Amino acid sequence: MHSASPVAVLTAPTAAGKTGMAIELALETGRVEIVSADAFLVYRGLDVGTAKPDLHERRGVPHHLLDVTDVTESYDVARYVQEAQAAIADILERGNTPLLVGGTGFYLSALMKGLPLTPKSEPEARAALELELAERGLDALLAEIERSNPQEARRMERNPRRVLRALEVKRQTGRWPGEFGSTTPGYRYRVTAFSPPLDLLERRISERTAAMFAAGWPEEAAWLAGQVSPDTSPRPTVWQTLGYEQALSVARGELSVQEAQAQVHLATRQYAKRQLTWIRKQLGADILGPDQARRQAASWLAGE
Which pTM does this prediction carry? Predict the structure, then answer.
């Protein structure tokens, strides 16, 4: 796989306006097709809680890697990289321009730097670690990593999924995930990253959260629970989607809408901050303002 020019990437924290900017760029530039880099837009049926753009919002711009798997199926980063690279190849072969859009850092890193050559996860080991996390807490597990490898601990960025995976690999092989190396990426990429000012981003998060609950998020979460139980151990990946646990609690009468919105707003704000850190540290990209990012991405898509 190769391309004469690097593939353009547009990334930003959640609720920053990636989707709208990407579609506007595609319409203005012409012959641009969007390849999603979002871990949860791949699932059919998760529309409200993932802020998935509907057909009207897409405005005729071709989108790839939306609705490609059922919530009952597993979907991992290896499958994502395979399907994203296939989509990019198809777009280029037809003479069009791919634009990679999303905020899932692990997916973007895997595409840009290669897939980690770590062993596959073992469900029983993972379940035991999830129980250990519940009993000991995240700080205790992070401290265990810190004592052995401070650099690896910093790489975790307090992400529970990454902490569990790191400990699983270490206990299974005696090596940390960062010590395994990666596959060779199929393409070269160049990243445009942006964010509105943090006060505006917080307001956008609050407004979007309220709109999602009003649009039927609790009902969607109840449907999801009917397809995949959130109580299964290890917990299904689909139930790690931000906010679905609170939306389900509303559907079950365990939380009020106001209480759920407050919890989701806080969790989303924290997630957005982690995304900004990931973009700077892992992708090595500067965080631009929206207008500057729009000009840069448009220039790159035009081949300048």
Answer: 0.85
Q: What is the pLDDT along the chain (304 residues), one digit of tens a residue?
A: 556 689 999 999 999 999 999 999 999 998 999 999 999 999 999 999 999 999 999 999 999 999 999 999 989 899 999 999 999 999 999 999 999 999 999 899 999 999 888 888 888 888 899 899 989 999 999 999 999 999 888 888 788 888 999 999 999 999 998 888 889 999 999 999 999 999 999 999 999 999 999 999 999 999 999 999 998 866 788 998 999 999 999 999 999 999 999 999 999 999 999 999 999 998 999 999 999 999 999 999 988 7
Residue 118's nearest CA partner among 164, 86, 68, 149 is 164
Domains and CATH numbers, the chain: 7-116+188-196+278-301 (3.40.50.300), 123-179 (1.10.20.140), 199-272 (1.10.287.890)
Three-state DSSP state, 37 = coil
Tabulate helix, strand, coil % of the chain (nearest 5).
55, 10, 35
Structure tokens belonging to residue 196: 């509105």
CA distance 229 to 137: 23
